[in-house]
Amino acid sequence: MSMTSCKDSITLNSSKVVNKREKGICVVVPAYNEYSRISAFMLEAGEFLRRNKDSVILIADDGSTDGTVNRIKAINCCKRLKILEFPHQGKWGAIRSAFFRAEHKIVAILDCDLSVDFDFVEKNYKFFGNVLFGNRYASIETEVPFNRWILSRGFSALVRFLTGVYVKDSQSPAKILKRDKVVSKAMFEMEERGFIGDVELCILLERNEALIEEIPVKYIYKRGGFKVIKNTKRMFSDLIRLHFKYFWGDRVARRSS
């Protein structure tokens, strides 16, 4: 699938926003080369689906090459757990593609390592605003190495300084979104496909005047998946690019008008 056809697919599927299932939750879980921990995830996913008969889980596979997809197919025994296979495009490319294929009014996003577990979704899916973020660093139950805590809090401070985003934990792995016009518009306008997509989503949500809520959430750090040095360097350069894209571009436009 080419990038163009992927964009066209999202355009066509975005019209489904008016045909939402009122009951249950759709949980979108991005996955890339998660073979070593997908079995543990599947056990927890099965328990969640047994407790929530109207809910579904969409695993958005981002072109895994380690047998993740085959492993899921081999052990999956629930029709309400579905795997969507996409060419490798980045975490947020896979999430967006899955979001526009969801049929439920409520769409949650969790990571495959379940550093924030399904309990967050089950307890908090009835909220007032357009989007609910779990704030890892507002919870006394969070368990994370000190160096990762410093790195994450430093990046969050840099996000606020360069973008003005007021969400305190923009990189939170736990989000619940209402699939309404405001959120769907922000998701459709997104262009970032990698990890920095969280920040772009926050920028676009705020520009579309979405009501964003944040609550403390228990987060247990899990090793693997995120390559700290490589991905942090990339996210820093992407954040600088977002700053010039959304804020310097606005200033130039205002001066020329």
What does this structure look like?
This protein has 257 residues and is α/β, with parallel strands linked by helices. It has a single domain (3-256), classed as Alpha-Beta Complex (Spore Coat Polysaccharide Biosynthesis Protein SpsA, Chain A), CATH 3.90.550. 45% of the residues lie in helices and 14% in strands. The chain contains nine helices and seven strands. It has a seven-stranded mixed beta sheet, sandwiched between helices. Helix 2 links the parallel strand 1 and strand 2. The radius of gyration is 18 Å and the shape is globular.
**Cα distance, first to last residue?**
40 Å
What is the CATH level 1 assignment? Alpha Beta
Gross geometry: globular
Which secondary-structure class do the elements indicate? alpha/beta
Q: What Rg do the Cα atoms give?
A: 18 Å
- Fourth-level CATH superfamily: Spore Coat Polysaccharide Biosynthesis Protein SpsA, Chain A
**CATH topology annotation:** Spore Coat Polysaccharide Biosynthesis Protein SpsA, Chain A
Total DSSP helices? 9
Instruction: Quickly count the domains.
Output: 1
Q: Kindly state the percentage of residues in helix.
A: 40-55%
> Main sheet: which strands, in order across?
3-2-1-4-6-5-7
What's the number of extended β-strand segments?
A: 7
Low-confidence stretches: 1-9, 11-18, 251-257
Mean pLDDT level: 88
Our estimate of the beta-strand percent is: 5-15%
Could you give the order of the helices and strands? Answer: HEHEHEHEHEHEHHEH
CATH architecture: Alpha-Beta Complex
